[in-house]
Design brief:
By secondary structure, this protein is an alpha+beta fold. It has two domains: 81 residues, no CATH class; 143 residues, no CATH class. 58% of the residues lie in helices and 13% in strands. It is built from ten helices and six strands; from the N terminus they run ααβαββαβααααααββ. It has a three-stranded mixed sheet, covered by helices on one side. Strand 2 and strand 3 form a beta hairpin. Bound molecules: zinc ion (ZN). Zinc ion binds next to helix 4 and helix 5.
Length: 238
């Protein structure tokens, strides 16, 4: 990895970078964010590409940005979970499922990545509180106006799950509950919270739970692991 970026990381994170690079047999690349990603938020991202022979991991940064160490670490933790811990990800089988599947992947990873990030970088807590507050504001209009009730429902359920799991003392939970009431999905939210609590230790079961709450069909997605062929998700626990 580029030494300027590497050197702003604490030793523990530098060791993770080395372990990931050893595992994939190449350096983690640094690349500018794509134009599309810049339009969608202009925040750093990590890209893991499997070309069948090897995995390539690239940290994508907004041009001329100077991200805080915890923001770089956040992206490295995403890569660590997939590559060193072998956490599964969903992949869409058909292009129209791409948006919802990538949202499920990102949010299900955040259930793991954000607490790990805050543990190492206490300043990340205030960052995520601000980020979630901005996210909360974006729901206000959607709950009132969005014609696509299904995607507002799904997005709000995931938002509720991530915020309640990773920042239990954030001051936006009451406002999330009000949106849930307005959409009449309080019982869905309670069921999801409860289902998550009983499977939170297993990424497979977490994906399985989210897939069920999103009412996806099994031919909408496949499950992928960093160094293994696709496999089915386990049946959900009753
Ligand atoms: Zn992330």
């Amino acid at each position: 990895m580029d030494t300027v970026i590497y050197n702003i990381l604490p030793t523990e994170m530098q060791q993770l970078v080395q372990q990931i690079e050893e595992r994939i047999g190449r350096e983690i690349g640094i690349r500018p964010l794509s134009d599309q990603a810049r339009r969608m938020g202009n925040v750093p991202a990590i890209q893991i590409e499997d070309n069948g022979r090897h995995l390539a991991v690239d940290l994508m940064l907004p041009p001329e940005s100077n991200p805080a160490p915890h923001i770089i670490a956040h992206e490295i933790l995403h890569a660590k979970h997939a590559i060193l811990d072998g956490a599964p990800m969903l992949q869409p089988k058909i292009p129209p499922m791409k948006i919802v599947i990538s949202a499920i992947n990102n949010d299900s990873e955040h259930l793991h990545v954000i607490p790990a990030e805050i543990m190492m970088f206490p300043e990340a807590k205030a960052f995520w509180e601000r980020d979630f507050t901005a996210g909360l504001h974006s729901f206000a209009d959607r709950v009132r106006n969005d014609r696509d009730r299904k995607s507002v429902r799904n997005d709000l359920l995931r938002f509720m799950l991530v915020t309640s799991a990773v920042l239990p003392d954030w001051n936006g939970h009451d406002a999330v509950d009000a949106h849930l009431r307005n959409l009449s999905i309080v019982s869905d939210a309670n069921n999801l919270r409860q289902a998550y609590a009983s499977v939170s230790g297993s990424k497979e079961q977490v994906l399985s739970t989210l897939v069920r709450f999103h009412r996806l069909r099994t031919d909408d997605y496949i499950v992928c692991y960093a160094f293994a062929p696709p496999a089915p998700l386990p049946a959900h626990k009753h």
